[in-house]
Write a structure and sequence with these properties.
single chain, 138 residues, mainly alpha, 6 helices, 67% helix, TB2_DP1_HVA22, transmembrane
């Protein structure tokens, strides 16, 4: 029974990096080389959510250590985000994150005349779409 438990632990430990990093990295590179934007949205959404999840874990680390099933719950959640049958990352982004960013005025405004930025100054200064910079095209 000890060998079985060791094998199960090793599989669980190896599954995390594969599900959370290796496969999304591979799929992101493939998505960048396709003409469609649907897969780009899925994988960019994934990395946004994964970043939020990682930051949340850093902040709540001492609390999460007391939840023994946290890593398993996280692994199942990330698998749902990653698996192409579900497109979970795009779903979460479109239903939750996009709405919060819209609500707080973080998105750049598309206006015909240049006006003062509506974003907080710090967000305007670090925005990838500042004036004079063109967005990367496929």
């Amino acid at each position: 029974m000890t060998k079985f438990w060791t094998l199960l632990t090793a599989l669980h430990t190896g599954a995390g990096p594969v599900v959370m990093l290796v496969y999304p990295l591979y799929a992101s590179v493939v998505a960048m080389e396709t003409a469609t934007k649907v897969d780009d949205e899925q994988w960019l959404s994934y990395w946004i959510i994964y970043s939020f999840l990682t930051l949340t874990e850093l902040i709540l680390q001492s609390l999460l250590e007391w939840i023994p099933i946290w890593y398993s719950v996280k692994l199942v959640f990330v698998a749902w985000l990653v698996l192409p049958q579900f497109h979970g990352a795009a779903f979460i982004y479109n239903r939750l994150i996009r709405e919060q960013f819209k609500k707080h005025g973080v998105f750049p405004q598309h206006q015909s005349k240049p006006t003062k930025p509506t974003k907080p100054k710090i967000l305007h200064s670090i925005s990838p779409h500042r004036e004079g910079h063109e967005a990367r095209s496929h």
